[in-house]
Amino acid sequence: MAVVHAIDRRRLVLAGLALAAALALVYAPVVGHDFVDFDDRVYVADNPEIASGLGWDGVRWAFTTGYAANWHPLTWLSHMLDVELFGLEPGAMAAANVGLHALASVLLLVFLARATGAFWPALGVAALFALHPLRVESVAWIAERKDVLAGVFFMATLLAWLGWVRRPGRLRYAWVVAMLVLGLMSKPTVVTLPFVLLLLDVWPLRRLERGNLRARLIEKGPLFALVAASCWLTLRVQQAGGAMRDVALSPLDLRIANAITAYATYLRKLVWPSDLAVFYPLPRTGLPESPFGLEVVLAAAILLAISLVAFVERRRRPWLAVGWCWYLGVLVPMIGLVQVGNQALADRYTYLSGIGLAIPIVFGSTELGAWVEERLGRARAQIVLLPLAAAILLAFALASHRQVLVWRDHVSLFEHALAVTEGNYLAHYNLGTRALTSRPPRLGEARRHLEAAVRLDPGYAEARLNLGNVEWLEGDVVRATELYEEAVALDPFDPEAHLSLGTARFEAGRVGESLEHFERAIALEASNARAH
After folding, report:
1. Which of 218, 226, 239 is nearest to 192 (CA)?
2. By the 8 A CB rule, do 42 and 152 touch?
3. Residues near 131 by beta carbon (within 8 Å), at least 6 away in sequence
4. Please, what's the b/e burial string for 337-353 (b: 16 or more CB within 10 A of its CB; e: otherwise)?
5. What is the secondary structure of 318-387 as a DSSP string?
6. What pLDDT is recorded for position 286?
7. Would you state the pLDDT for residue 59?
8. What does the alpha-carbon distance between residue 327 and residue 348 come to, in Å, rounded to a whole number?
9. Which has the closest alpha carbon to 306: 392, 364, 350, 385?
10. How far is CA 147 from CA 130, 136, 186, 462, in A?
């Protein structure tokens, strides 16, 4: 029978306020941040549905759209509420993200404290979750509102489940279902939640006894049905929106190899969170015959070794096995076996999965602390251990603060990405496009970055298109036309590429051919006024 522990509410309130205050200090610079031209404008700033604020038409749109290859109506509604309250003010929207992250952190603290009865380890896990630099991308990036909002409902579902375990009933189970549904409507990555609840039955709830696995699965049946429906809907929306990567560009062996190295890389970034970037490029061309090189083999060996230790210690230290399985399992939808986008990994993918690593680290440290106390005595041990724990959290907080500053604007974000990664064609593209669209255009800078993007990824149609725009503005119409032709050949479904090539054909007097491209642009994007 599971035991739900009573924890001093005053202590929880004080700890929660301390966490919120620490996050306010770490993330204070976001109030002066600008939108970045990487999803922020597509999602929010240039989205007329969001800019209209909260209304019945917006609610209808939020629940029926697959805009930006996503179905997350609650996230859209939260952005609309921001506009209703603050207008299109990026600093206020980012501050709202910070508030949601603080709420998720406090809910995690309350859940772990009540489930384990161990207040200080629970606070340690919540603090590590709240203050770690890997969280910055999810919090400081306005377009990643879906991460922090889903995080709130993820933690709320855990607390609701704890209430149902303590005293089962239909209304309590309905509350669990409601929190899960709200989480799925925020971001479908919470599809792993029933799996996490099953892990919690092992530890700390200790409800999984010999012979009752079937009963534990049956009680979660409605939850598994909900996440199965969410998976089906998400795949359909992402396929329709063109977010699913071409399998020819990401063969299965490459995806498996990348998944193995990503798991190991996230481990390294948890311990030593350096070189964090908004985009880590996945190889797109020139793939090796076999991607299973030494790096992949070493990563696989590390993962297998930790898994073996967790299995051997599963009875004496169940928090190790549960935390490790949490980490591995919650990352599955984002690990790249089904590739969405061109990133090899992303800091935001650790938002919920990283809790699984924090649990064994903190509870293992507690066990180590008890061993030190036995040898030094309680007073001497605390003189050593408490400052050490505080120093580690302070170091993570300072590193997070520095990473927050990276997100202050578009140029800062992608210049940092270029500095800490290799072969980052997307960073070059974004910097080149910003230079091209500035007033007046900085054509030399735009050319340098866009040529680098094309060199690093010859199949990057958008980079060729904008490089063609540079040539056009510099008066080399022939070279611009060649680049437009290449862009159309690489991506025949891009209306802007057809529009540019049609314009070039028109200027060259080839009116019939230009008409074909203008008509194709309109067929692809009926609202394209310039094509009309």
Report:
1. 226
2. no
3. 22, 23, 26, 393, 396, 397, 400
4. ebbbebbbbbbbbbbbb
5. HHHHHHHHHHHHHTGGGSSSS-BSSEEE-GGGHHHHHHHHHHHHHHHHHHHHHHHHHHH-HHHHHHHHHH
6. 44
7. 96
8. 14
9. 364
10. 13, 11, 8, 28
pLDDT of 289 = 53
Q: Mean pLDDT by 10-residue block, N- to C-terminus, for the chain (532 residues)?
A: 72 96 98 95 94 95 93 97 96 98 98 95 98 98 98 98 95 98 97 97 90 91 97 88 58 87 95 95 58 86 97 96 98 82 90 97 92 87 88 97 98 97 96 96 97 96 97 95 96 95 94 95 92 93
- Determine whether 6 is exposed, middle or buried from the number of CB atoms within 10 Å of its CB (0-12, 13-18, 19+): exposed
Q: Residue with structure tokens 């070059």? A: 428
**Which residue do the tokens 């063109």 mark?**
242
Q: Do residues 160 and 179 make contact, with C-beta atoms less than 8 angstroms apart?
A: yes
| Residue closest to 104 by CA, chosen among 140, 150, 72 | 150
- Phi then psi for residue 113, to 5 deg, are -65, -45
End-to-end Cα distance, the chain? 69
Any idea which residue has 């299109």 for tokens? 88
Please give the helix or strand (H or E) that residue 280 lies within, else none: strand 280-281
How far from 414 is each of 27, 280, 409, CA to CA, in Å? 20, 11, 9
pLDDT at 531: 92
Hey, what are 238's tokens? Answer: 């992402």
Predicted TM-score (pTM) of the model is: 0.94
Neighbours of 494 (CB within 10 A): 18
SS3 525: coil
CB atoms within 10 A of CB 36: 25
Contact between residue 150 and residue 144 where contact means Cβ atoms under 8 Å apart: no
Give the pLDDT confidence score for residue 239 in this predicted structure. Answer: 80
CB-CB contact of 187 with 147 (8 Å): yes
Please say whether the beta carbons of 165 and 205 come within 8 A.
yes
In 407-510, where does DSSP find H-type helix? 410-420, 425-437, 443-456, 461-473, 477-490, 495-507
What phi-psi label fits residue 39: left (phi over 0), alpha (psi between -120 and 50 degrees) or beta?
left
Tokens of 510: 């080839």
The count of other CB atoms within 10 Å of the CB of residue 388 is: 12
> Pick from 532, 500, 501, 505: which is nearest to 519 by CA?
532
Question: Is the separation of the CB atoms in 425 and 463 below 8 Å?
Answer: yes
> Amino acid letter at 13?
V
Asked whether 202 and 89 are in contact (CB, 8 A), the reply is no
CB of 201 closer than 8 Å to CB of 1: no
Cα–Cα distance measured from residue 504 to residue 140, given in angstroms and rounded to the nearest whole number: 41
* Bridge pairing between strands 280-281 and 343-345: antiparallel
Residue type, position 50, single letter: I
Q: How far apart are CA 117 and CA 108, in angstroms?
A: 13
Looking at the chain, the number of H-run helices and the number of E-run strands are 25, 2
Q: Which two tokens stand for residue 339?
A: 């590739």
- Amino acid 285: pLDDT: 46
